[in-house]
Amino acid sequence: MTSPPVHVTGRIAAVLRALSGVEGRGAATSALARATGLARPTVHRLLAALAAEGYVDRDQRDGLWYLGPELYLLGEVAARRYDVTQHARASVHRLAAATGESAFFSARRGEETVCLLREDGAFPIRSFVLYEGARFPLGVVSAGIVVLAMLPDREVDDYLGRTDLTVHWGQSHSAEALRERIARTRETGYSVNPGLVVEGSWGMAATVFSRAGEPAWALTLTGVESRFRDERRPELGALLLKEAHALTNLLRA
After folding, report:
1. Can you give the pTM of this predicted structure?
2. Which of the 8 DSSP states describes residue 173?
3. CA distance 199 to 203
């Protein structure tokens, strides 16, 4: 578990990230305090200041906080430079159509992955661990595993040396367990999440690299355990790697 940020900018960023991860449901001040590790009065003061500028909004009926209209306007401008989902959408569609599973595109943001796109395949049973806007620390869910695995050893060592994922995600996310997962991912090129977040909900992911060769995004397939048997995983992995390679080349062009 990482320590809460000490400077104001970091605290504001932590609050906004936590608020963005509630999938449009809104969040109470106390819930945001728990998610950020900040004191409740501190979070309330930050939210009040952000609300005055239009960056967050509060529903007066239930007191829940939501992202505000000013963020939408800023996002529209930023998307002109940073939005890669227009390129990734075709890859996500092909993966969902070819496998019948739910396909996703996630971006690395600092020490997290953020789900940007989702498309469900034809198979009727779905996993809802991932959804658009969902954030997870590196090393958690298949996207976070594969991005972490593709970082240089020194960055992996630094991250695991100061981050305790077991507090929120259990012993299956200990540094030792993650190192084993990283080693397997590097061997195959794709990661496997064998129901570590929600029992019976499996995922696999492959990395999409930036022009600088950094693991910046991930393509993911998720579904129920019976759809990710030993005999099928190599096929799914090959499809993920094919689409990830093609998307990497497209984004580098």
Report:
1. 0.73
2. G
3. 11
Residue span of the structural domain in which 67 resides: 8-77
Separation of alpha carbons 29 and 39, rounded Å: 10
Length of the chain: 253
What's the distance, Cα to Cα, between the start and end of the chain in Å? 38
The residues, ordered by sequence, that sit 6+ positions from 132 with a Cβ below 8 Å of its Cβ are 23, 115, 116, 117, 118
What CATH code is carried by the domain that includes residue 72? 1.10.10.10
The predicted structure's pLDDT at residue 25 = 82
Give the model's pLDDT for residue 129.
80
Domain-ending residue, one of 24, 55, 77 = 77
Q: What kind and span of H or E run contains 107?
A: strand 102-109
Nearest Cα to Cα of residue 202 among 108, 101, 100: 101
Q: What is the CATH number of the domain that holds 239?
A: 3.30.450.40
State whether 97 and 73 are in the same domain: no
